[in-house]
Amino acid sequence: MIEPDLSRIWVYLSASPLLGLTLTLVAYSLAHRLYLRTGSNPLLNPVVTSVTALILFLLVTDTSYDDYFDGAQFVHFLLGPATVALAIPLYQQFNKLKQVWLPVTVALVTGVIVGAFSSVGIARLLGASLETQLSLAPKSVTAPVGMAISEQIGGLPSLTAALVVVTGIIGAVIGSKLFDLMGVRDDSVKGIAMGMTSHGIGTARAFQVSAQMGAFSGLAMALSAFLYSVFLPWLLSLTGVLA
Amino acid sequence: MQLINGMTMLLIYQLIGEVSVRLLALPVPGPVMGMVMLFLTLMIRGALVRAVEPASSALLSHLSLLFVPAGVGLVVHFSRLGNEWLPIGVTLVLSTIITMAVTALVMQWMTRLTAKRKPGHD
Question: Does B84 lie in the same domain as B122?
């Protein structure tokens, strides 16, 4: 008589937000432990391993993303207040920022233009659909803002969210190698490039390198989110990507 | 209690941001507007930073975790990814490298340029 009980428990669990929320936290804390135990190997970024594990779980148990998200939304929701919270590192670094406002502004405006056009341009050249191109355009913007921009310009917000995560991971994984190859040693320069390209995931990685790189990365993530949301719709319509 | 107060402040600013963006029809997402408003508030009343700091560093130090639910959303787009994996994959890798490299170069170049103008600056 164990069989029917188990299936009844599963029916309860799969309909309750408890499972999705708990699984997300368990997967992440295991992934984080694995990451630390392997000496912070960038390929084992906790977002990669926990997302992979959770996707496998959903596929194996035939659970829909909507059911999972009923629980996971509580974690996802915190991206909003986390975006607001970026005001604090921005405020604390303001004195440092005042000295470098010109290089930072020029670098970020260039970064937004290059980021938007390289993604739309490459995707278009390789024959991606317009929806996919538009979903790729805000791929360097932290998830809640990127999703809002995607919706505004006619992309698919949920696809953008996933692409944002992958972009963050790529940047976090290749960043240090790329800076070495380019001979970039200044932590403030590395931080700006990291936060501009790989938002929160890159910033988490930057804080492991140094507090200065982390602060500049957080700064670049906050400012570029602002610049992207103001300029991207305008840039795209100006160049005729958007009618 | 500090954590709850800080969290409440962040939510209030997000709420004000969302409402004002809609009222004024601004092209900026609500949380970004909330961030700008909180930043301006801190510039006027710096002492407030102590009230929000614990909640904000709790959120920001586990920022990666907050991206996990969105990342799992890839599962919904498997058929699109199946059809367009090549353009999407190449775009993600190339555009990320190009954007990161150009931003770093411009930042490095501009830092040197502005440092030269101020001889006392090291």
Answer: yes
